Amino acid sequence: PFRSCRVPGLAVIALCMAAPPDGDDGNARWGEDEFGPYRIDDRVWSMNEIRDHPMFMEDVPSDISDNPHLLALQSILYDGNTDEEMAEHFRSLGNEAFRSSKNKVASQNALMAYTKGLEMECKDQALNSQLHSNRAAVSIRLGEFDKAVDDCRRAIKLDPTNTKAFFRAAQASESLGLTAQALKFCNGALETKLADADSVAKLKKMRTGLEKRLAREEDDHRLQKAKGDAATATYRQSTSAVQAVLEEREVELGP
Questions:
Q1: 3-state helix, strand and coil shares in percent for the chain, rounded to the nearest 5
Q2: How far is CA 219 from the centre of its chain?
Q3: 146 by DSSP, 3-state: which?
Q4: CA distances (Å), 100 to each of 60, 107, 116, 122, 127, in order?
Q5: Calpha distance 38→252 (Å, rounded)
Q6: Is 130 within 8 Å of 168 (Cβ atoms)?
Q7: For site-directed labelling of 168, which of 71, 95, 186, 220 has its Cα 20 to 30 A away?
Q8: Are strands 13-15 and 36-40 parallel, antiparallel or unpaired?
């Protein structure tokens, strides 16, 4: 069944196997040496193949259907794991990336991992809440405060006892200048009663600062309103005086 030749110093190489291994489509070329059968691939590396290989990718494409390498890796990764197990796996990857460094690449990796975890759509609401809250932490680091608040709202809706989600929402809201909203989130964190002593002290300090800031903002608002009301009253008084003079002199203004 084999056509073989002997090369000095090398083992016998068998080509054109009559019966290819199971799963082969019959178009591949196979050889055999002392280690067993192997697939012969004499194609040279192309630039596209190098670029699309998982080991050299800078970003994972959203659609991997045309990349057999990524499809194979995904199959190995997901095989036999539940949605909850995969979500937890990606949460751990995100945590590791987030803690490893504050540089752009680490933040991007953490963001991708938490997002991938949410894409598992697992039934564990507490885990999904943590994924949203952790992704909010990355958004805060990147200065994307609106996105952070949005993720925190979702996290709180999924798990009203998620203290970190309340705290991060307060941080992001404060950065956006939404002091009253930040104070509500801060109070929400304290109401969960799940924070440790250090976190409680930190939250109370934040609350005190927010209360003082809100009081100043309200004072400024009242002052600006008073100035605006005074300006409006002055304008109306001046308009009335002018109108009285015109009426006294029987002057009529045109349309």
A1: 65, 5, 30
A2: 37
A3: helix
A4: 20, 9, 19, 26, 22
A5: 105
A6: no
A7: 220
A8: unpaired
Residue 167 · residue 183 · CB < 8 Å: no
Tell me how far apart the alpha carbons of residues 217 and 215 are, in angstroms, rounded to a whole number.
5
* DSSP letter for each residue of 3-58: EEE--TTS--EEES-SSPPTT--S-SEEEEETTEEEEE--PPPPHHHHHHSGGG-S
Phi first, then psi: give them for residue 194, nearest 5 degrees.
-110, -5
Three-state secondary structure call for residue 66: coil
Q: Are 203 and 184 in contact (CB under 8 A)?
A: no
With the CA atoms of 143, 149, 150 and 156 taken in that order, what torsion angle do they form, in degrees rounded to the nearest 10?
Answer: 140
Phi, psi of 37 (to 5 degrees): -70, 150
Question: Each residue's pLDDT tens digit in the chain (255 positions)?
Answer: 333 344 444 433 333 343 455 555 566 777 787 777 777 766 666 656 655 555 555 555 555 456 666 556 665 667 778 999 999 999 998 999 999 888 888 898 899 989 989 999 999 999 999 999 999 999 999 999 999 999 999 999 999 999 999 999 999 999 999 999 999 999 999 999 887 889 999 999 999 999 999 999 988 888 888 777 777 777 777 777 767 766 777 666 655
Q: What's the farthest any 2 CA atoms get from each other in the chain?
A: 126
Helix (H, G, I), strand (E, B) or coil at 253: coil
